[in-house]
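Structure (tokenized):
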């Protein structure tokens, strides 16, 4: 093993060590997503600004009675609440690093010149980056969960994934029917809730939107 390692060029060793590093992070990330352990802050920037919902029908869990509320519009129009495509995120960067390093290792071990190896590695990294970003975009769009299913999220604790603006709609990561899901949500008090805040589901609103309240003095990992 030592002889094999010493036989590799310095650049190949760097690529190989990077490949192992990113592979471990990728594996941990997959496990965390599958089992809901912790929270990886996937997006470097928030996507979407203020999302308003007007003429909302609110279901009060505590009393079991519904009442109609109204969320004021700051600009007189209803903003879009669709999550945008985010190319640069923690997950996509990890995917880039993993494919970039493994591709570089294999190309260099196959006899390619450093310039060709790095060039092809960048291409593979960008492909992986795009695929992961597109996958997360499609997963984030799977929000049309029936109200009956959303009822299983009542009193579950979750984490704010996309910050909730004042009197607006964001997105939370919470268990629905026993599965980790990303669902639109708004604050019970109408106050802003920043990304990463631990919250509890306390109600269900129109258009498949959960109503949440922040859990005091706790933040997600």
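Design, position by position:
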């Amino acid at each position: 093993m030592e002889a094999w390692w010493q036989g590799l060029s310095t650049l190949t060793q760097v690529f190989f060590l990077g490949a192992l590093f990113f592979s471990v992070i990728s594996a941990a990330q997959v496990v965390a997503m599958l089992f809901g352990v912790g929270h990886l802050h996937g997006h470097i920037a928030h996507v979407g600004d203020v999302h308003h919902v007007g003429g909302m029908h609110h279901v009060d869990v505590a009393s079991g009675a519904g009442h109609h509320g109204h969320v004021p519009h700051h600009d007189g129009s209803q903003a879009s609440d669709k999550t945008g495509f985010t190319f640069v995120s923690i997950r996509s960067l990890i995917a880039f690093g993993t494919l970039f390093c493994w591709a570089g290792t294999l190309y260099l071990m196959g006899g390619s010149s450093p310039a060709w190896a790095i060039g092809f590695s960048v291409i593979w990294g960008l492909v992986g980056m795009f695929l992961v970003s597109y996958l997360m975009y499609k997963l984030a769009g799977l929000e049309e969960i029936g109200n009956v299913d959303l009822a299983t999220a009542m009193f579950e604790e979750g984490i704010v994934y996309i910050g909730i603006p004042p009197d607006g709609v964001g997105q939370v990561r919470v268990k629905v029917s026993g599965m980790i899901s990303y669902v639109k949500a708004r604050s019970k008090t109408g106050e802003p809730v920043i990304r990463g805040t631990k919250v509890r589901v306390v109600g269900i609103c129109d258009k498949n939107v959960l109503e949440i309240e922040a859990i005091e003095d706790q933040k997600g990992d």
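Reviewer-requested clarification: The domain at 57-72+145-219 is CATH 2.40.50.140 (OB fold (Dihydrolipoamide Acetyltransferase, E2P)). The chain has two domains: 2-37+86-140, 57-72+145-219.
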